[in-house]
Specification:
This protein is an alpha+beta fold. It is built from 2 helices and 6 strands. The protein has a 3-stranded antiparallel beta sheet. Strands 2-3-4 form a 3-stranded antiparallel beta sheet. The model has no long low-confidence stretch (mean pLDDT 83).
Amino acid sequence: MDFPVKTRLAGVTFGMRQHYIIDFVRFQSDIGLQREYDNPYDENAIRVTLNFKRGGFVIIGYIPRQLAGDLAKLMDSGIELKAKFVMRIRNTKIKDSAVNILIRIDKI
């Protein structure tokens, strides 16, 4: 796999995630990547979070399944990955936003 990797997040329309995405664009929070070992739908799940400066986080989506398997193996081996916001794509017909991020290796 070549880095950096650009991807569109999955699951961004679930619950309040659209509101969090709009707030993220407004406040430019930090993005986190966290393995979600207990995810019943995907053993390689990687959630994408907005990390608040005062502590805590909210989930805004997931790394797509096709990519999560490879990235999960890297994360599980101790390699640290960082994500950066690239673009918010707004669909005005259904009032939803998609989010693209760029993933790079931070520490090996």
